[in-house]
Amino acid sequence: VGTSVIQVTATDADDANYGNSAKVVYSILQGQPYFSVDPESGIIKTALPDMSRENREQYQVVIQAKDMGGQMGGLSGTTTVNITLTDVNNNPPRFPQSTYQFNSPESAPLGTHLGRIKANDPDLGENAEVEYRITDGDGADMFDVITDQDTQEGIITVKQNLDFEHKMLYTLRVDASNTHPDPRFSHLGPFKDTAVVKISVEDIDEPPVFSKISYLIEVDEDVKEGSIIGQVTAYDPDARNNLIKYSVDRHTDMDRIFSINSENGSIFTLKPLDRESSPWHNITVTATEINNPKQTSHIPVFIRILDINDHAPEFAMYYETFVCENAKPGQLIQTVSVMDKDDPPRGHKFFFEQVPEFPLNPNFTIIDNKDNTAGIMTRKDGYSRNKMSTYLLPILIFDNDYPIQSSTGTLTIRVCACDNRGNMQSCTAEALILSAGLSTGALIAILLCVLILLILVVLFAALKRQRKKEPLIISKDDVRDNIVTYNDEGGGEEDTQAFDIGTLRNPEAREDSKLRRDVMPETIFQIRRTVPLWENIDVQDFIHRRLKENDADPSAPPYDSLATYAYEGNDSIAESLSSLESLTADCNQDYEYLSDWGPRFKKLADMYGGDDSDKD
Ligand SMILES: *[C@@H]1O[C@H](CO)[C@@H](O)[C@H](O)[C@H]1NC(C)=O
Ligand SMILES: *[C@@H]1O[C@H](CO)[C@@H](O)[C@H](O)[C@H]1NC(C)=O
Ligand SMILES: *[C@@H]1O[C@H](CO)[C@@H](O)[C@H](O)[C@H]1NC(C)=O
């Protein structure tokens, strides 16, 4: 009360020195009882204690200024002042209800929002900001509350996995408090409010639960078929506690080595085990609720096969060695090492001995080096290829695991000639080939030689066949072939003048005809054309002349039908035989195409040209 808000001032134009006519006094006409005005200074002050913005925010205050010292008869003026109350944080947040109730399924994932609570604060802005906190309750560890900054609500969330079978109902005490409390109002009591939140957990049908998150079973590899090697157990976590049945996931045990008792979960073998082929069998076991087959769980079962000494040690490789003819006694000729498929936990330990069934070997000594290797040494001198080319030395190898396993390895030792430094120079012929072997280069060379030989043989055979084909076919069956190649239409077999079928049957004559064909009529033409002879000459003369010319021409072939009969002549009684007449009239024509007609002209001539009277 009494806090000044604003000062108002009025002026009076009258003379202030004269009486009270300019003496102004302020009074409040409107705005009481909230505000008062100082009559002298015009300062407006608060007048009411515990003014509440939440109740009323806006005030209109009317102030009057009156001269004459406020006396009756003075003149007055008024002004209006609008006053707004600003907010202070004088209100704590308040829950509208003291208890809230929420539900959550037991399977709710962490962070699930279960519900919202809100404490109201009538203040404005940051004075109305609220934060929520769980202060107490048996669910304080299981749940959390976060503040939604936009709505100033508290959100209850799941903090830990719930289990209906473990606890069905939780209670929380949640505080709501202002983030910006005003210490001036701390006398009004704690600036917070508390509500009780009850959360009930709902039951969900859950799959079976195994007693472990995975199982490791160790079993000796010599375990008998049908033996129980381990057990898994699962139970239904639900209140109903359904019965469980077990099965092996067949995809993880393709060979059906294992099986499980569906009632009590005992795992047993169906087949013999072998650590050397598969040291681990990692299978999956499924547990299913009998009354509710949809509820299933899977668990990995790692089955480790433990080693049993069931393999004998053997030479690590095939050993073949030699001894020099000039070797001295006590020379080391070979060191042998062995391997064993077993995997004893303390590592391998091997021993080497002479085979006991044989008498003491007078030729070689076996030295056990005590480091799982053995050295073979000469025992005498004077090894001779001629006397004995190869020695076979049996060596007994055994391990020290239980049960002891042993084997006999045989070392092949050849006798060879060596130089002074002990380098092998030659063994027996047999040994040489076997030990030296054939280098790949030599093999390729040999193969190449064989290949070249083959090619040569094939080429030779082909050449021979070609040469055989060269002579003309003499067989009578092939005569037809030659008729076809003969470029003459002919008149059939009766047409003996066209060609003599007898010639075809006579191979020698055919040789001649073949020669004829070699020369193309074209060349004949060229020669003839140089001498144009056929104008106004009697056909008979023309033919005779042409015949003579051809007889005298050494280069002309005897196949002269074109030259001889290309001229029809003007005086033929048979008139024009063809359009050729018009051609002969025009001597400028190019007769080159006639070369194609050569054989036909010969035929025409045979029929008509030689004898005018033979009109038919
Ligand atoms: C499970 O049942 C089989 C067959 O009835 C039995 O041989 C085995 O001993 C049982 N396993 C356990 C762990 O009781
Ligand atoms: C089986 O599981 C073991 C242990 O996790 C692992 O060392 C082994 O490699 C697995 N074997 C196979 C075949 O998956
Ligand atoms: C030892 O060598 C001799 C020949 O030098 C041979 O007759 C004899 O059989 C060999 N003994 C053994 C056990 O190999």
Automatic annotation (TrEMBL):
Residues 2-95, 96-210, 211-315, 315-432 form the Cadherin domain. Cadherins are calcium-dependent cell adhesion proteins. They preferentially interact with themselves in a homophilic manner in connecting cells; cadherins may thus contribute to the sorting of heterogeneous cell types. SMART domains: CA (SM00112). The chain crosses the membrane at residues 431-463. Gene3D superfamilies: Cadherins (2.60.40.60), TCF3-CBD (Catenin binding domain) (4.10.900.10). One of its GO terms (molecular function) is calcium ion binding. Keywords: Calcium, Cell adhesion, Cell membrane, Cleavage on pair of basic residues, Glycoprotein, Membrane, Metal-binding, Repeat, Signal, Transmembrane, Transmembrane helix. It is a single-pass type I membrane protein. The lineage of its organism: Eukaryota, Metazoa, Chordata, Craniata, Vertebrata. This is Cadherin 9. It comes from Otolemur garnettii. It holds the Pfam family CADH_Y-type_LIR.
